[in-house]
Design brief:
Blueprint lengths: L2 H31 L6 H19 L2 H8 L3
Helix pairs in contact: 1-2
Length: 71
């Protein structure tokens, strides 16, 4: 098994987490630039939910296991 193949599951996991963080960045940018007044509470909840998902994915036993193969 080569390094690229063995890193694939970890790379996939970290890419998914990165995509969640990118989505938060877009929502935050939209909140600051185009979001209509009164949408702040809903947007804050959306961002908090996505950040929670990213944090849970990063700190999950699955991520720990994937990282453990390289530490």
């Amino acid at each position: 098994m080569n390094v690229d193949t063995s890193l694939a599951p970890l790379t996939k996991r970290l890419t998914e987490i990165h995509h969640l963080k990118d989505a938060c960045a877009v929502l935050s940018w939209d909140q600051e630039t185009y979001m209509p007044p009164g949408g702040g509470h809903a947007r804050a909840e959306q961002i908090a939910t996505i950040q929670t998902l990213a944090h849970e994915a990063l700190t999950s036993p699955e991520t720990e296991k994937l990282l453990g193969t390289w530490i």
